[in-house]
Amino acid sequence: MLIELLEEYFQREEPHRERDYFYVSEVGKCPRQIFYAVKGFPRPPLDGQTARKLAVGEEAHRRIVQAMYELGIVVAVEAPIPPGALFHGRADAIVSLSGKNYVVEIKTVHPYNFDQMAIAPRRDHYLQLQLYLHYLQIPQGIILAENKATQELREFVVELDRPEVNRVLAEFEALRELIFVRGELPPLPDKTDWEYDQCKYCPFADFCRKDMREIPRPEASLEVPAEPPVLPEPYEREIRVLGLFDEL
Ligand code: SF4
């Protein structure tokens, strides 16, 4: 009863449009999935539960940033990568601690992943922070993780890792050439390095299975007919006067 109303309230269409750059959050993602995202292939609407989970993460970000403001350590928030770069993205915050600036990436993580991060950050989080360190020219940063279930915090202080940054930049330069210049669909990926099975949650799995390279045309039944339908009297006359959606 109420749940159905709330589900409908929270679910939303994900905007999909073509772009010619990558997001920092795409580091570590399947290259085929990136192809479908940058080419603007349609994806199913975001269901209510996933939308609410995202809202909880955004709320945690706001709470932590607010606390850092009140501590008087914030230098900047939502710091953007300079325009024209291969990647687009905004670092969550830059803080000053003991006279040094640090880029801070805030991550809210599932309890299982939080336990996996006992001694080291997740690889995709590490690489995303590395890109921010590179583009913002700040040689150190902090990955701050909050357990979604218990609000326990964990932090990892990392230094700029130049070899890894160069490797990621070279990898995405090659992907840029493949997708944007040659317009090719990347081959099926080697999944051995994946931290989880991305195919299981992939919104583009149907397109991938069929090796699709072009956005499918809308169903013929949804296309607007070239000629208006011929309706029997009296409806023909009424519709011309009133319009199709007026009450007859
Ligand atoms: S189904 Fe798997 S291989 Fe295909 S695009 Fe999605 S994540 Fe990549």
How does this model look, in words?
- The chain has helices at 2-10, 31-38, 48-70, 111-116, 123-136, 162-181, 205-209, 235-242; strands spanning 22-23, 74-80, 87-88, 90-97, 100-109, 140-147, 153-159.
- By secondary structure, the protein is an alpha/beta fold.
- The protein has one domain (2-209): Lambda Exonuclease, Chain A (Alpha-Beta Complex), CATH 3.90.320.
- The strands form two sheets. The chain has a five-stranded mixed β-sheet, with helices on both faces.
- The protein is globular, with a radius of gyration of 24 Å.
- Residues 220-248 have low confidence and may be disordered.
- It binds iron/sulfur cluster.
- Iron/sulfur cluster is lined by residues 30, 32-33, 188-189, 198-199, 202, 204-205, 208.
- Iron/sulfur cluster binds at residues 30, 32-33, 188-189, 198-199, 202, 204-205, 208.
Query: How many separate domains make up the residues?
Result: 1
- Decide which structural class fits the backbone: alpha/beta
Strand content: 15-25%
Unreliable stretches covering 5 or more consecutive residues: 220-248
Q: At the third CATH level, what is the topology name?
A: Lambda Exonuclease, Chain A
Number of helices: 8
Ions, cofactors and other ligands present here are: iron/sulfur cluster
Order of helices and strands: HEHHEEEEHHEEHHH
Mean pLDDT: 87
Distance between the termini: 32 Å
* Major β-sheet strand ordering: 2-4-5-6-7
State the share of residues found in helices, binned by percent: 25-40%
Number of strands: 7
Main sheet characteristics = 5 strands, mixed
Radius of gyration: 24 Å
Silhouette: globular
CATH class: Alpha Beta
Q: What is the CATH architecture assignment?
A: Alpha-Beta Complex
